[in-house]
Amino acid sequence: MLICCMLFISEARNCAALDLIERAARIDPESVIVNKFEDRVYNRIRFTIVSYVVADSTGSPIYSPLHQTVLAIVEAAYGAINLELHSGAHPRLGVVDDIAFHPLAEASLDEAAWLAKAVAADIGSRFQVPVFLYAAAHPTGRAPDTIRRELGYYRPNFMGSQWAGWNIPEILPENPDHGPSHVSRTRGVTLIGARSWVTLYNIPIMCTDVSTARRIARMVSARGGGLPTVQSLALFHGDDSAEIACMLLEPNRIGPDRVQAQVEMLAAQEGLDVEKGYFTDLSPEMIVQKYMNLISSRRD
Q: Are 95 and 166 in contact (CB under 8 A)?
């Protein structure tokens, strides 16, 4: 039974900090980094880490190497990154911005949720960081975008399209699930959840107008009356281009080809060119295969 952890950290430019964080991620050989995605414009990195989960005789999960691996990464990130000094073109609430657990192979969503809740409790108490749970890790299954809207995640505070420093009140509008209600400006807030696999797919468009890019993103998303099970966000990615960053909540229902076609249609109406989109991670099948290959080579 395998669990995949996607761990999003607000840094991609400080090589010394990234080196410390990656070394922490490699401390336990039973947790394997199968992929990482860095974007210097967004100033954000995502580690995709896989390990197993052990259950007791009743089938209840009791142990996963990912637990301590994630805590080691978090500790290294908080020691190396100061959110007040951070800026980038991608929204974020904290140094460790989001930790998402996904079941792979024979693991279940319940096992991913167990691990998410255990990690959240430790991060909240050990590092005194407010932690909000989402999806299967939360009793009501609340969505992460609901939490983010309440906390002002989607509102840039610098140059109209950038996020810099800590930009929401230090006293949170609602109590977190773990940790204090008072926010450290250097560490921020962390979201932790467990959910079935989602596909992250970014589509570059040749656009320099903020309102136009945001209008296209809104019309693509389910929230804006566009494609069901699709969430999208317009982000600037350089001087002359933007990206429609899409999360496909049910990729077998609405896949990247349909999203690509929708963005191309909407952009054409605005007289804009669109490039072919790209995935920011491997598929679940590829992740499992890469994990097995890496584990096998270590044993050899």
A: no
Give the rounded distance of the alpha carbon of 249 from its chain centre. 13
Question: Is-contact 230 247, C-beta < 8 A?
Answer: yes
The pLDDT tens digits along the chain (300 residues) read 999 999 999 999 999 999 999 999 999 999 999 999 999 999 999 999 999 999 888 888 889 999 999 999 999 999 999 999 999 999 999 999 999 999 998 899 999 999 999 999 999 999 999 999 999 999 999 999 999 999 999 999 988 889 999 888 888 888 999 999 999 999 999 999 999 999 999 999 999 888 899 999 999 999 999 999 999 999 999 878 899 999 999 999 999 999 999 999 999 999 999 999 999 999 999 999 999 999 888 776
Known catalytic residues are: 90
> 186 CB contacts (<8 Å, ≥6 apart)?
82, 83, 84, 95
Neighbouring CB atoms inside 10 A of 215's CB total: 15
Whether the model pTM is above 0.85: yes
Q: Is 63 exposed, middle or buried (0-12, 13-18, 19+ CB in 10 A)?
A: middle
